[in-house]
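A reminder before we start the practical. When you read a complex entry, don't treat the lines as separate problems. The point of joint prediction is that each chain is placed relative to the others, so the output describes one connected object in space. Small molecules and nucleic acid strands, if listed, are placed in the same frame. In the example below there are two entries. Take a minute to note the order of the lines before looking further.
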Amino acid sequence: MCLAVPGKILTIFGEETLFRRGRVSFAGVVKDICLVYVPDARVDDYVIVHAGFAIHQLDERQARISLDELEALGNLERERPS
Amino acid sequence: MKFVDEFRDPQNIARLAIAIAQQVTRPWTIMEVCGGQTHAILKHGVDQLLPSSITLIHGPGCPVCVTPMEAIDKAIEIAALSEVIFCSFGDMLRIPGSQKDLLTVKAEGGDVRAVYSPLDVLTIAQENPNKQIVFFAVGFETTAPTTAMTVYRAKQLGLKNVSMLVSHVRVPPAMEAILSAPNNQVQGFLAAGHVSTIMGYREYEDMARQYRVPIVVTGFEPLDILQGLFHCIGQMEAGTCGVENQYPRVVTRKGNSLAQDMMNRVYKIVSCNWRGFGEIKDGGFALRSEYQDFDAEQKFDTKSIVVAESELCRSAKVLQGLIKPTQCPAFATTCTPENPLGATMVSSEGACAAYYRYRRLELSKVQSA
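Here is the predicted structure of the whole assembly.
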């Protein structure tokens, strides 16, 4: 399945067992998620989660770049003669 | 919800729709690979914002839909055993096998459980030492690292009562099968975003060059889909065929190397059957010999069963992108989510389920007009 959802890391535990896990909030719904594939993720970071595993940290800067491209399109629209 | 709402902004959606209309000069056919993308397109009406010269073909990116019926029948056989607790993602429970589905096995007394994560299986195994716990490992490269880690942990913990019925599949060989088919109409791809989160997108670069198709790794919100289309159409109009990443907030070119390492440790690449396609070379994964103790096919002596699809079901053609679900005579008549003939009507990523959920009423209006 390709479905994965962004969530915010609230707490991290299990570091001593080398099987790092965290409590992750999906807009208020909190689940235990395995963090072994995102070793650099910290509390308050956003991660994308699939089948109980965080598979990537959400890169806020990259999200901003994607959205900025669309605002630039909007500026082009305004400059274009109607 | 952060990282979701911004990618559903109506103003930006309108901007992209206008920008796409302005860049199109001739007809183009694009395939969105992932079933999650198909659902997003239909749910948010993305296809209805596009000029009529753009045709979207729905790809086979629904791992539940492409799981071969033989695998479902094996799962059913194992799940019916009294010593087994059979665990699966919820979607798989209603996929029809040749005689019944896993939910029916549960109704008949089998211990069949839907789980959110394959890791849940380890807890169930520890709590039920006298039972054999079997997990139906279905999914693309997004899911394979999660089951690989589960097998790895099971071995680390010394669990003897856990096994996997592996039916993982790989997306790039299926894309190549589509591109090399004689009747292929696909001129560009929106590649599966979360598969690329794991695998990166290096492996698409040779494919784009060889078949001369642009491939844009794309996310799942309506803005992602439209932005992916904008870039793909831009390439097609310019006559280029490169790989682009529309989804950089969770996709990098090299992907998640820890996840890839775990997959390589636990799985080897094999050729396998895809429901609707037949055998696809290097199209799937199987457990390596070091993990054979966790292979449910070896642990349970399942008979090989000759299976036949329903004659009415056209899901093979839908999965190959040759017809839309609404072109199947059984759609919304004999075949509904309550009584599905094939997997594409059951799965949350199936194209038929998407059309049934989001377009059925339009179809009835057309039929009664």
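Discuss with your neighbour: The interface with chain B takes residues 1-4, 6, 8, 19, 26-27, 31, 34, 36-37, 39, 46, 48, 50-53, 55-56, 58-60, 62-63, 65-67, 69-71, 73-74, 76-77 of chain A (CB under 8 Å). What might explain this?
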